[in-house]
Amino acid sequence: MAEENIREFDVIVIGAGTVGENVADRVVRGGLTCAIVEAELVGGECSYWACIPSKALLRPGTALHTAQSVPGASDAVTKVLDPAPVLKYRDYFTNKWQDDGAVQWLVDTGIELIRGRARITGPREVQVDGKDGASYSLKAHHAVVVASGSTPLIPKIDGLRNVPYWTTRGATSVRHIPKRFIVLGGGVASVELAQAFARLGSSVSIVARGRLLSAFPEEAADLVAAGLRADGVDLHLGTDTTRVEHDPDHAFSVTLGDGTVLNSDQLLVATGRRPSLDNLGLENVGLDAEEGKPLRLTTDSSGLVEGAASDGTSGLWLYAAGDAAGSVFLTHQGKYEARATGDAIVARAKGTLHGTPKAWSALAKTADEYAIPSVVFTDPEVASVGPSLKQALQKGINASSVELPINVSGSQLHSENYQGWAQLVVDEDRKVVLGATFAGPGVAELLHGATIAIVGEVPLDRLWHAVPSFPTISEVWLRLLEKYGL
């Protein structure tokens, strides 16, 4: 029998991805002891299989296409990418899937790393099956934090579970570029990876039940669709996948609802994600899934999980942040939640926070619900924050919108035949910006200004005095405000 080690910490964090790291950092900064439990690589999904490697695969193609779109530069650059240096560039950003640097950061920060699989056995109690063969019983004086990330949602398609498909992990860690590549799904990961592989030489098809990027305005999604088609991506939208097969020669065949059969050398399933809460022992503290549904946690603005069993002294001990909390699956948003959660744990431990103060809750609501920034790193990019006009109206807000093509000196200089689109959503009662969407090459850097305007509730007549530099794409702000009537 493996030796059992009993250890106590102020805080135990389950999951050493970017969210777990940020929670642990905040509690250690606040003077508490902290252990973080991780079964895989320290740094998590974003660092090794999602945000970072996918952008490293995308960026060379975007840079090349930008140069090809500028007279003068276009004569000096190659017409196609060589996959080998692109994959080497990706390997650099993932540190070749070695986490020694991240582990050293934990050591330097004073966070105890326990490698293994964690399971909650009771209030403030965690059992870890260590990768070293030992079993660890951990006790938290103040808090246990679930920061276990998310896992792919796999659709129920005939034959799919019997074939060696990729999820985003397989695509972002690819060693050889397939000649033919099929992507199931029309969301952010789907369009980003489809374009990356198309520019690396694959013949790519996307199959989606609806339109592309359904969470974004259709005008913006249409520009992305045009960009994909220009790269040779074949789009099959508004159609179901009815069957998937894989033959002995390692080829995939995908049958669509209209009877069309697509063939490829590799298949990517990128149809969404769900919180990774399986086998964490949450049922041991009264958190059970509804019959036939996956478990979902409900948290307040401090990350406190509702409904967790009390240890007899306080129910304020179980927290969740990031994808595991299930609100928004975005790294930057998860890190924001992690910082707030860590600060709340420290405050409660020191007796300076009781419940969730109304002021904190209101501010967190702004960041968590009303001003969530998101970027699609395709070429063209889509950058969006806040609700669309439709979403604002559904919430009962007296809202309007103003839209126009991005056609300013900055965009004309950026690239020849620049195509872009911009929208502001306005709260007509308060005369402030509620939401903003920009679509076009290089628009991601416009987004933080929009986020600040929304979070800061800057009045439109005050915003008009924020003069955009000439000649930049930011001039579109002036054009939007002028069209609005300022």
UniProtKB/TrEMBL annotation:
Q: How is the cofactor bound?
A: Binds 1 FAD per subunit.
Q: Which cofactor does it need?
A: FAD
Give any GO molecular function from the UniProt entry: NAD(P)H dehydrogenase (quinone) activity
List the Pfam families hit by this protein, alphabetically. Answer: Pyr_redox_2 (PF07992), Pyr_redox_dim (PF02852)
Positions of NAD(+) binding: G185, G186, G187, V188, A189, S190, V191, E192, G272
Residue intervals of the FAD/NAD(P)-binding domain: 9-332
Residues given in the record as FAD binding sites: K55, D323
Is Flavoprotein among the key words of this record?
yes
- EC number, UniProt record: 1.8.1.4
Note the SS bond partners: C46-C51
Which family does the similarity line name? Belongs to the class-I pyridine nucleotide-disulfide oxidoreductase family.
What protein name applies here? Dihydrolipoamide dehydrogenase
Q: What organism is recorded for this protein? A: Arthrobacter bambusae
